[in-house]
Amino acid sequence: MESLYIIEPGSYLGKDGDCLKIMKNKEVLDVIPAAGLSRLTLVGRSSFSGAVIDFLIRKRIDTVFLTPTGRFRARLLLDEAGHVERRRNQYVSLADSKFAAQAARLIVTGKLENQFNHLREKGRKYGLEALSKTAIQIRAIISQLQGADKLEAIRGYEGYAARLYFSVFGLLIRNNRFDFNGRNRRPPRDPVNALLSFVYTMFTNEVTSAVNSGGLDPYLGALHEPQPGRPSLSCDLVEEWRVLGERLVLTLINRKVVRPDDFIWKKAGESGRPVEMKPGVARALISSYERQMQTRVKDPVADENTMLRWLIHRQAGRFGKWLGDRECKYQPFKW
Predict the structure, then answer these.
(1) Mean pLDDT of 152-177
(2) Peptide bond connecting 187 to the previous residue in cis, omega within 30 degrees of 0
(3) How far apart are CA 79 and CA 58, in angstroms?
């Protein structure tokens, strides 16, 4: 097992030899061998002992803590030695405002091209002119973006395209039990936004693991300004993968894998978030996400098929290579 998710509320993680033991109310729910385990994600209210922390560090298991709604809380930071040169290249390159703008423009262009392709495909499939029209508007923004050489302008184009994209996102939902009236977050206020926020966080964690493995600093990016606690480079490099997360959410909704009663709604005045996923829907989303990560896709650079998870790692490595060698220009993945 490569990735382990613990989502059972009130669960406790213990150690048993070279295995992790998941318990609740003194009952053993599962025993997971550490061999082959590289990622551990704890969702919601779980706990573990100091011996488990030591075990995770020694086994170099990437450990992430998420809120019940999937929002990132913290990561167990493992020492990554031997990558001084790569990080030096990153700091020097992204301190150059001209290069940072070029990197941001590439990242946004890749994101918008994937949004354009998604809306164009669904517009043809569903026969909806509004989707096709918005796709054309996003393609026009891509053309305008190529002349932008300031970060503020590039971010402005990205924000405008996002508003256009989500203005028609509800038309992609083919299940009349779900409504979408625009993107909202921190916290999400409806089931669709709760699913989107959760899957975006999972993709960002995936990219962060790839960035760390490649020896880069996840907290210094180009498009996203550095902020305390925000992995700006991960937020940059996840942009090209967002459409895959959105397609995953749409598949779960449109195939009726998830239902409105899979969510907990809070009444006005109650503490906590307006809407939260029940453990069952979180399990369904995580299971679908892991299947997606193991899907084999074409790597256009290497001209071969590889698992999506490893393609994400390759892309992070290629971005790092570009930071040290400008001849190896980075190209976001086009879906």
Answers:
(1) 97
(2) yes
(3) 11
Angle CA 13–15–17, to nearest 5: 155
Q: How many other C-beta atoms are found inside a 10 Å radius of the C-beta of residue 263?
A: 17
Residue 68 burial by Cβ neighbours in a 10 Å radius (0-12, 13-18, 19+): buried
In a shared domain, residues 98 and 60? no
Contact indicator for 277, 199 with CB cutoff of 8 Å: no
Which residue bears the tokens 């669904």?
Answer: 122
Q: Domain for residue 76, yes or no?
A: no
Residue with tokens 């940059």: 236
> What SS3 state is found at 197?
helix
Residue 130 lies in a domain: yes
Residue 79 in any domain: the answer is no
Contact at 8 Å (CB) between 108 and 223? yes
The answer to whether 114 and 122 have CB atoms below 8 angstroms apart is no
Residue-number span of the structural domain to which 27 is assigned: 3-66
Axis crossing angle, helix 97-126 with helix 129-145, rounded to the nearest 10: 160
Neighbours of 315 (CB within 10 A): 23
Q: What percent of the chain has pLDDT over 70?
A: 95
Q: Supply 104's token pair.
A: 């941001």
- C-beta neighbour count of 16 within 10 angstroms: 11
Residue 335 lies in a domain: no
CB-based contact 162:189 (threshold 8 Å): no
Cβ count near 91 (within 10 Å)? 12
In sequence order, what E strands does the chain have?
Answer: 3-6, 12-16, 19-24, 27-33, 39-43, 47-48, 62-66, 72-76, 263-265, 275-277, 296-299, 304-307
Task: Return the structure tokens found at 257.
Answer: 């894998």
pLDDT-derived band at 92, boundaries 50, 70, 90:
very high
Tokens of 252: 């779960």
Distance CA 167, CA 182 (A): 6
Question: Rounded to whole angstroms, how far apart are CA atoms 135 and 292?
Answer: 25
- Same domain membership, residue 161 and residue 214: yes
At 291-301, the pLDDT tens digits run 999 999 999 88
Do 174 and 254 share a domain, yes or no? yes
